[in-house]
Amino acid sequence: MNRIILLSLLFFGSILTSLAQDDAIQRFFSNYMEDDRFSRVYISPKMMQMAGGFLKNNAEEAESKDLGELIQKVRGIRILSSDEVDGMTMYKEAYSSLTKNKYEELMDVQDKGSSLKFLVREEGGLVRELLMISGEKSEFTLMSLLGTFTYEELNMLADKTNIPGMDQYGKGNKQK
């Protein structure tokens, strides 16, 4: 009986931890949604499906059709950015709000007063979220790309699209 109770508590605890992580990122975005110093962008899954479908259906080349299918896998993009804040303070605040054991670091660039990190959250061997946190003297950017991707597909998104933040991802060593 004690074993069943213990297993139940562990199961529900893992669910709550997962929900708390999603809430932590959402809370970070929410904290600054009404702050006029920040630009906020949200691209819905429906918009990504429409864009991918348009590209896929109007493409004559196989590569364009593949890219259209890949874009349809994006389940949302959220971007929060500002050039009117202490970027390094915001960078530290955003990074500290993450549950570190849920994310794996892909790239970390520290250079004379600027920091850039790319992190991924994986489930079942697939990337569910690509997170970019960037801060410098008076600039801050947080980008969250949700979906279900292989690393090869992320590389293709970086190389073939203009999705914000993916240009920085494309500059790093992102092979997995």
Automatic annotation (TrEMBL):
Q: Where is the signal peptide?
A: 1-20
UniProt keywords, alphabetically: Signal
Would the keyword Signal turn up in this protein's UniProt record? yes
Supply the InterPro entries for this chain: DUF4252
Protein name, as recorded: DUF4252 domain-containing protein
Organism of origin is Algoriphagus marincola
